Structure formats: structure tokens, C-alpha cells
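note to self: dont lose this again. the chain is below, predicted strucutre after it. 439 aa total, dont forget to put it in the shared folder this time
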Amino acid sequence: MIWAVEAGGQKKKGRGVLKGFKASKKRFANGSAKLNITFSEKLGGTVGMNYRSFKDDVVVIMKRKLPLIGVRTWSDIHPTIHRLIVADIIDRWDLEDTPETEEKVLKIAKERYRGWRSTLSSTYKAYKTDAARLANLPEDLQPEEWEWMIEYFGIDSKFQEHSQKNADNRKKQKTKHIIGTKSYSQVSFEKRNLETGEEPDCIALWELTHTNNGTWSNTDSQKVYDQALEEVKNKEAETKGPLSSEQKNNVFQTAYKDTLECKSSQPRGYGYMDKTSTGSKKFRIQIEEQARATAATQERNSQLSQQVNDLEDQLQAERANTQERINLERAEREQLEERLKEERVERERLLQEERTSRLEFEKNMMAKFVELSKQIETQQVPTKRVDKENSNPNLQNILSQTSSPNKTPGSRPTAISSNALIQAAARQSRMYKAMDPKN
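---
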């Protein structure tokens, strides 16, 4: 525990510098697992049993990561440092790494960073001299950081102008909530309908955050409530039906500005994490959503184009494989046809040789038959003469004795006629022709 400083160097007891011990203890009790946290769908702030531990964790990490030296506004901090804060939070808490999560975490970090510097400014103003300020180094700062902040608070004209403007605005603030450090989101969450989950509307939430046991925090807070409630009743009477949440919010914002003569366009009654959009913010959100939708469409188109290219490559490969198979089959068919052609030529050659050989054989046989028939014809004349001479018994006996020993005695030798030989040769020729498939 440290001590806050009042003007004049007097110290008063405060919350002290956050160490993040509560979140660490919860994480240890949970087996070092990530802790759960929920953001309000209606107001955007953290809600639930861990809502305060989450904010404390953001503050601890913010102070470790964000520099003080050389920084005059939040925009001076490089986006890479923002990303480091978000990454550390996601490592500790059960959150999805989305642009929406990053926006919420950085919104809390920005608000706490401004509060941190505001506390340091109050510490600076509590002492009259730089020596006294240097002697009272804040616990969460290094000496060189505090030296730079002292110089910044003392001589930077833009800071002094901005600081004075904020002080004047705080003096003009007429309403006062009574919820302390509890957020509007958490109050709305705690007062929700447990059966339906419906949270209070803006007018009911204003009453919850500005009254204590029926007593208003101040008169101006009550005036805003009464004016808004009356306007809602009048409009519901005109329309003869209940107003929507958005319509009630518009009525409340108008009643707030009219009652307190406020010129600011910042929505009131929801806290700094408010998700209620002004016209310009709605337009910006629409543009961002349209840009995200366009980017998603382009990404989808890119994926589809890649898929089409992959399919075309696959189809081209299949076509190449098919053409290769066709060429291979054509080559095999041509080879088969070539072999069949060669076999046909070879078979025709063999048949031709056989035909030529047979014709040659027939020719030779015919020549032999002709020669043989001539020999037989030449032998027929002596035979007739012998027949005549057979009338001589003695000659008959001599011929009988000189005949073939295989013949029966007394039989006559058999003579083959030339016509019979010719007919036999003709029959053999016809038989060969019938056997030849070419004839």
C-alpha cells in the first residue's frame, strides 16, 4: 500500500499501486489456466465475477509496456506496443484474438493510461518545488521517468493548457454517480432479468447509478431523470405503444443536453466503454464493416480463384495423362497392325511358295504321266503282235514260263491304259486345287 498526496504535501491513504496479485491468485487457483471474462453486449464493458481483476491486469501490463518518456498523447505510442499489450492479455485471459477484442482491450488501456498520468500530475501539483517532487518518487516509476514527467508537467505549454481545460470541464460537471469504481456495464449486468437476460434501459440505468436507497446524488441528476421519463411517457402516449430501446436512448440524450445545457455530442449515462453509436461513429462502423466485408469477399474470391487454378492444373494433368495413354494405345495398336501385316505377308509368301511348289510338282507329275503313257502306247503294238503269236502253243508256253513268278500260272500280264493314267492325274490335280484356299 502506498499513499496518495494531497496539495501541500500531505499524504492520504489510497488504493496503492496495482500489482496484479488478485488475478494471479485466481489464475493459480484455477491451475494456471486462462481466466474467463465477458464483455457486455449492450454497453461494451467487462462484466461478471472477474471484471475488476481483468481491468487490474490491463493496468499492470499497460504500465510495463507503455513508455512515459517522450509521450505527450496516446497517439505518440507506436501500434506495435499496443499489440504487445493485447497479446499479453490474450495469453492470460480466455479471449479470441479478434479486432473487436483488441479494440476493447486498448480502450481500457488508453483510459487507464490517461488516469495514470492524471495521478502523476496530481502528485506533481502536491509539491511546490522540483526538489520536493524528486524526493517523493512514485513507487511505479523509475527516477529518470519521474524527472522527465516533472519537466513535462512544468514547462510543456500544451499540457498545461489541456490540463486547465479538463479542470474547468470537471467544475462544470453537474451530475454525479454513486457507484464508485464499479462500471455502468457491471451495474447493468447485475440488475438484469435473470430469466430473460434483459438489462435495464438507459433511463432505469441512470436511476440505478445516481440514487442510493431512493435518494438522488444531486438535484441535476434527478432533473435529467424526470425530464427523460416525462418525454418517454408523452411519446408513448402519442404513438399509443412502448418505445424501443433506441428511441428511449434518443429521448434520454436529448433530455440530458436540454436540462444541463450540454453541447457535447458524447453519449451520456453509459460509461466510457459505451457501445451506443453517434451518427459519425455509425457511419465509420458501417464503412469498417463494409471494408471487412469487401476484404472477406476478396479473400473468398482469391480462394475460389486458387481452387479454380488448382482444378485447371489437375484437369490439364489428367488431359496430359489421357493423351499419353491414347498415344501409347495408338502405338501399341500400330505395332500390332504392323505385326499382323508382316504375318499376313509371310503367310501369303508361304502359300505362294506352296502353290508354286505344288504346281511344279503337278507339272513334273504330268510330264512323267505323259512320258509313261507314251511308253505304254509304244508297248501296246508288240503286245498285239504277241497276241497273234499266242496262237502258237509252243510260244504260249515259253511266255508262260517267263512270266512273273508272283502271277498265277496261265494268267495274262495286266496292261494299264494311257487314258486311265491321264484320268488319275486329273483327279489328283483337282484334289490339290480343292485343298488350296486361294482357288
